[in-house]
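Query structure, 899 tokens:
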């Protein structure tokens, strides 16, 4: 580990420091390494930084003119420069002096060099070093006080050369032969790129331009920051005194990018007619007829030769308004990834933006499509990339003028689908808002004279896995890639990862000119495609291994499922699947067959309304459904009160005791009214009532001492009790008593024997609705718990935030306990009422382990939850009345279509 390495280094710390200090001193003996004369210069860029005399230093560095040297002053080594030793750079003739050069040419040194020789005692010899002007503290930055190695020489043909080692001044001797090339071309042949061409005074080495481009694409280094680094490399003490060539760097870098792209693309010259996107590379694995697909290939194999694309917008690549938009020089307009500017501007002027309302959720890409920002010429960019390998499509990146408008993305998509697509007629297109975008795509393209798509092209729309769960429920089966045959195991969101690399340079392009910004973004995207291509073999090999292992598991699961259904079901479901897949291109709603076509479970109020509508207008059962519903509400209030008592402990505060007293009093009044009305519906006569009054026993099985986490209810109140027993216990003054005169308290056998079976059936149906209410509340509470854990508890950064977050969690836990206790009470009542096995199979026993929150409930179709198993009530959205059709068959049908 890193700590182990640091521990190993600590004993060497002082030794390393001593060596660093020793390297600052001149070597002994103090002689030139080559000629054995007195040494004056040393070169830190050379191995072992040898000590050299003036002549040997100049001769040794004839092939290394951009090394930085140091000169001994008598006390220390100070920065110097090779031009001060008389070094010259000869152009042509392999670096040798031109034989045609004039013998009377001015000497290379014109009072700017400062050669010195030092004796062994450290004193300088007179005449070897010129006197320097005295430095005035008040005028430190005066030109006379700039260090000589940083001062541009005058009076000779010195050229300022910018290299990775800093800024240098070199005396350049061009070739003067009769057939010699022009001076700029001689410089370029010497790997020096001039910044001007009439009388060049500055040139950049090929190495510094390559280094700048690498820093730009890898680290996002802007031109200003990069040149600032070069100034510090030149002089770490006085970087502000180094000559500024930042603007020249940007100009030459633009030329260098174009030249590199022309070279990589195999262009010998720039005279050939250019094509859209001909200077950049595309995905090597996507099918391209004539490139990686032979002429004999059967392109009708839709899954194999289908183009899979993904579109998206990026609002980080902003662009400011330009001062002189008409005075622009486009070097590679349309030959990269950005679309050609004049046709695109003509398309924007000719195409009106039509605001379309979406029937799906309120997505920002739709609601903010017309949002404008006055200070920006471009609010962002939209692009198309291949969905499997993440390569940008050439000539498909467009600028946004406002929001992510459909007319912008139409231009991007149509140009992407015209790139090397001859013969390919199947396209799989992913977009975050495809449910709205694809509705009128053909109509928009047909109405434009500047866009074209082949009529035979079949486009299957999809939505990426990260975004499809933010849409309406119907969009999942219509656009999720899990329901698209041949889509493969992809997420459809790979373009989101491409923005992260493009955003590295997006900030530096904000204030550039439009051509410069286009060239920089094109170069960055081309580098992204190149890095994808060189790593593609390893990536595809890993994916192939994963796919081979996964297909075995999927096949085994499918075979087990296939054995569980009848041959007739296999044939019927297979026909429905085939029909849906064939028609989905024209009508995505046919994919709704993959969704479970069942009604939601009825709640207690819906059951009560249905029973009231069916009940007779007069007679003993008139209003019985409302009476039973009142009893269920009282029962729920009692359960909630008992849980509240337990949560507050044996010694609650005075305010909480008052709350308990008020709620107890209200419950007692509600119980009394309910019992009084119960004598009517249960046909209790006076004589029976008098005999009932002799039994005044009270059962406190629901008191606070018995309320454990799972035992908020008790089944002691459900037995084959008589009316005498039930009314006697229900008439007690304890509001926590479980004895309410409901049919479930008597038992199914007693109800049948005493002609109370119709009331028992009513209560059974209402109990099922009450159970649905409780399970629905339980699901919502557990969902809220997951959301609060993710969004509140985990991000909490201080004590108060954590305290409030956990208070929210405790409140939700109380709701979970209440819903669980109510459901268990319902299930006990259903058992007492004689519910059959089908009902009890639907309403299973609720275990304590089922009440844990899980994120799998929200993204059941996501890849990372394939092996997650939810408790039974998460998938229980089925009709609960006994007259409904078989829900199990419908669920199995939907599952079969998903394989």
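Result returned for the query:
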């Amino acid at each position: 580990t890193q700590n182990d390495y640091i521990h190993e280094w600590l004993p060497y710390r002082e030794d390393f420091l001593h060596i660093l200090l020793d390297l600052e001193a001149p070597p002994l003996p103090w002689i030139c390494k080559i000629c054995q004369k007195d040494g004056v210069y040393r070169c830190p860029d050379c191995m072992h930084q040898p000590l050299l005399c003036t002549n040997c230093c100049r001769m040794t560095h004839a092939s290394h003119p951009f090394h930085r040297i140091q000169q001994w002053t008598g006390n220390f080594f100070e920065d110097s420069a090779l031009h001060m030793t008389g070094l010259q750079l000869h152009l042509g003739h392999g670096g040798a002096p031109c034989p045609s050069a004039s013998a009377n040419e001015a000497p290379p040194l014109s009072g700017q060099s400062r050669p010195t020789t030092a004796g062994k005692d450290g004193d300088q010899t007179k005449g070897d070093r010129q006197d320097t002007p005295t430095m005035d503290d008040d005028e430190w930055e005066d030109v006379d006080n700039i260090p000589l190695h940083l001062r541009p020489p005058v009076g000779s043909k010195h050229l300022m050369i910018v290299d990775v080692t800093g800024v240098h001044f070199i005396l350049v001797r061009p070739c003067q032969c009769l057939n010699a090339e022009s001076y700029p071309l001689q410089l370029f042949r010497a790997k020096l790129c001039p910044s001007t061409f009439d009388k060049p005074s500055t040139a950049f080495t090929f190495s510094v331009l390559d280094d700048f481009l690498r820093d730009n694409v890898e680290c996002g280094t802007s031109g200003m920051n990069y040149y600032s680094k070069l100034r510090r490399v030149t002089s770490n003490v006085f970087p502000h005194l180094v000559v500024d060539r930042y603007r020249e760097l940007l100009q030459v870098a633009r030329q260098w990018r174009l030249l590199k792209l022309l070279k990589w693309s195999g262009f010998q010259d720039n005279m050939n007619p250019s094509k859209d996107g001909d200077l950049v590379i595309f995905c090597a694995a996507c099918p391209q007829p004539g490139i990686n697909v032979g002429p004999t290939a059967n392109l009708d194999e839709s899954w194999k030769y289908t183009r899979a694309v993904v579109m998206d917008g990026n609002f980080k690549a902003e662009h400011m308004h330009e001062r002189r938009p008409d005075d622009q020089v486009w070097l590679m307009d349309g030959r990269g990834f950005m679309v050609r500017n004049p046709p695109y501007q003509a398309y924007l002027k000719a195409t009106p933006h039509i605001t379309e309302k979406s029937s799906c959720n309120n997505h920002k890409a739709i609601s903010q499509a017309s949002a404008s920002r006055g200070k920006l010429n471009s609010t962002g960019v939209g692009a198309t990339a291949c969905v499997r390998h993440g390569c940008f499509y050439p000539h498909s990146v467009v600028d946004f003028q406002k929001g992510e408008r459909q007319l912008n993305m139409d231009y991007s998509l149509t140009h992407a689908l015209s790139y090397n697509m001859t013969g390919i007629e199947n396209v799989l297109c992913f977009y975050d808002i495809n449910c709205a975008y694809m509705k009128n795509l053909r109509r928009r393209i047909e109405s434009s004279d500047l866009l074209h798509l082949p009529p035979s092209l079949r486009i299957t729309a999809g939505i990426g896995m990260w975004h499809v769960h933010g849409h309406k429920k119907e969009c999942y089966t219509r656009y999720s890639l899990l329901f698209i045959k041949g889509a493969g195991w992809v997420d459809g969101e790979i373009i989101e990862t491409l923005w992260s690399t493009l955003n590295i340079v997006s900030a530096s392009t904000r204030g550039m000119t439009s051509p410069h910004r286009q060239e920089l973004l094109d170069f960055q995207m081309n580098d992204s495609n190149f890095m994808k291509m060189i790593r593609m073999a390893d990536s595809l090999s890993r994916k192939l291994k994963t796919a081979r292992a996964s297909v075995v598991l999927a096949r085994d699961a499918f075979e087990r499922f296939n054995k569980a259904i009848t041959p007739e079901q296999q044939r019927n479901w297979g026909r429905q699947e085939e029909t849906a897949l064939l028609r989905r291109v024209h009508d995505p709603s046919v994919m709704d067959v993959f969704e479970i076509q069942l009604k939601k479970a009825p709640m207690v109020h819906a059951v009560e309304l249905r029973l009231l509508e069916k009940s007779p207008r007069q007679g003993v059962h008139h209003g019985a459904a409302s009476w039973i519903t009142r009893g269920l509400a009282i029962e729920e209030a009692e359960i909630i009160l008992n849980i509240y008592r337990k949560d507050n402990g044996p010694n609650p505060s005075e305010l909480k005791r008052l709350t308990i007293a008020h709620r107890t009093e209200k419950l007692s009044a509600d119980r009394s009214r309910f019992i009084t009305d119960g004598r009517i519906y249960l046909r209790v006569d006076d004589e029976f009532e008098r005999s009932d009054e002799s039994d005044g026993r009270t059962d406190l099985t629901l008191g606070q001492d018995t309320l454990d986490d799972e035992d908020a209810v008790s089944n002691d109140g459900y037995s084959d009790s008589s009316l005498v027993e039930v009314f006697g216990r229900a008439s007690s003054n304890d509001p926590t008593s479980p004895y309410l005169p409901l049919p479930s308290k008597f038992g199914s056998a007693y109800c049948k024997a005493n002609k109370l079976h119709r009331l028992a059936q009513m209560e059974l149906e209402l109990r099922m609705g009450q159970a649905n209410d409780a399970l629905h509340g339980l699901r919502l509470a557990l969902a809220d718990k997951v959301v609060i854990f993710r969004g509140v508890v985990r991000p909490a950064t201080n004590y108060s935030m954590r305290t409030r977050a956990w208070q929210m969690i405790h409140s939700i836990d109380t709701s979970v306990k209440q819903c669980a206790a109510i459901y268990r009470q319902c299930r006990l009542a259903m058992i007492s009422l004689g519910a059959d096995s089908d009902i009890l199979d639907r309403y299973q026993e609720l275990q304590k382990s089922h009440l844990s929150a899980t994120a799998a409930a929200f993204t059941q179709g996501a890849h990372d939850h394939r092996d997650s198993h939810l408790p039974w009530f998460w998938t229980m959205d089925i009709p609960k009345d006994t007259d409904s059709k078989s829900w199990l068959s419908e669920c199995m049908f939907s599952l079969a279509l998903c394989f």
